[in-house]
Amino acid sequence: MPPFRPGLNRRALLAFSAAALVVAPLGLGAHPALAAEEGPAKIPLDQLMAEQALPDLWIGDPKAPVTIVEYASMTCSHCAAFTTETLPKLKANYIDKGKARYVLREFPLDPLAAAAAMLARCSGDKREAVVELLFQTQRGWAFGNNPLDALTTTLKQTGMSQSAFEACLNDEAMFKKIDAMRRVAETKFGVTATPTFYINGDRRPGEIPASELDAVLAPYLK
């Protein structure tokens, strides 16, 4: 799938939220490609850690020697694989032991991904759990014929009411902040697709399988 295009704006999101978006031309049923080898190989940490349009919601000790930033799209199957397969190992072996901290930043590739990212942010302190739920159930809501209905049903599991769901998707300020984060990643860091990781500022495009995690992090923990 190509990167999130400027034409897929708030109007497209609102059309989607009204179930009027034609999903086929946007490729919502396709699996986004791995991140391309674009952008600088290393971003200075002060730039990477600069204040975002939405606050970073970190997992782990801020003094940990390894800082991992992931740019992810909620409709990206490779991002889902990282969250469901690799993140548990990252938490158990590195985050919980004070060796690493991790944050997911929104980089929506399409209106459906933008909607899911907004809904996760609208969940407040449940955001981490909602992100994990959406990735765990991605096949059920992202790639079907009625993604809006499926997304609504999924979010009800978290206690989100229909009125809260609709209010979130119509939150113009939230949409602009999600899009601002995407634009910064794209224009300043050269992010074009997902997942794209930065480990202590070093760019690593593409999924990190659980089997490769130790080897990937070992150079940062010498």
Automatic annotation (TrEMBL):
InterPro entries linked to this entry: TAT_signal, Thioredoxin-like_fold, Thioredoxin-like_sf
Domain of life according to the entry: Bacteria
Domain spans labelled Thioredoxin-like fold: 55-216
PROSITE patterns for the chain: TAT (PS51318)
SUPFAM superfamilies in the cross-refs: Thioredoxin-like (SSF52833)
Family membership: Belongs to the thioredoxin family. DsbA subfamily.
PANTHER family assigned to the protein according to its UniProt record, in alphabetical order: GLUTATHIONE S-TRANSFERASE KAPPA (PTHR13887), THIOREDOXIN-LIKE REDUCTASE RV2466C (PTHR13887:SF56)
Name of the molecule in the record: Disulfide bond formation protein DsbA
Record organism: Rhodoblastus sphagnicola
